[in-house]
Amino acid sequence: GAMMDNRFATALVIACVLSLISTIYMAASIGTDFWYEYHTLSPAENVSEAGRSIWDEFVSKDADEKTYTDALFRCNGTVGLWRRCITVPKNSHWYSPPETDMTTNCISFSLSDQFVEKYIEPGNHNSGTDLNRTYLWRLQFLLPFVSIGLMCFGALIGLCACACRSLYPAIATGVLHFLAGLCTLGLIGCYVAGIELLHRKLPLPEDVRGEFGWSFCLACVSAPLQFMAAALFIWAARTNRKEFTLLKAYRVA
């Protein structure tokens, strides 16, 4: 009896902690702008020549994918799920010496940007819709919210389970965490595929290096945590049920 109960209690506490950490990681990765980073080896002189126009184009309402991607290449850009950022000189005199203070400016993708179609040739709307990239982008925008939603719903069911002193709902919580893990994996897959396809269309210039940033890594860490939490919830509920049935059988006997 008591020995077993401790094991479940421990499993459930660990599962809850993992669940909480993965929710925090997920939320942080959605909210930050370092999913992908470009390192421009010679940014300063690039920017001072055409800086003002790059910035104006980058911010403008109708900046198409090609325009803002070129700016990201040239100005140490970083991209999140919601925002894109470039680093430009702080002062308005673009012709001043290149060793001026640099500042990072960001602009959000609007909701319509998230759902707008991507073209086969980025920036050329006569080239037809690139369905793969369009849907990958929409999925990478929706999946993290589904993932967090499932975990929060799982947490609610878990709280009810504690209130009712029943372990049956722990199985439901486990299943929801498992589905959340699948969504997070899907998100990671969609993001990587989307970046790959974009760089095939718009290859990185010679002097630009691209790499996945720490926001992306947080999502990658979140997925295994969700699966581990799911496994613990389900294990605790199932084993406890077996124990309970055995105990009842023993009592009856």
UniProtKB/TrEMBL annotation:
The keyword Cell membrane does not apply. InterPro entries: CLDN1, PMP22/EMP/MP20/Claudin. Gene3D superfamilies: 1.20.140.150. The keyword Membrane applies. It comes from the Eukaryota. It is a multi-pass membrane protein. This is CLDN1 protein. It comes from Melanocharis versteri (Fan-tailed berrypecker). The gene is Cldnd1.
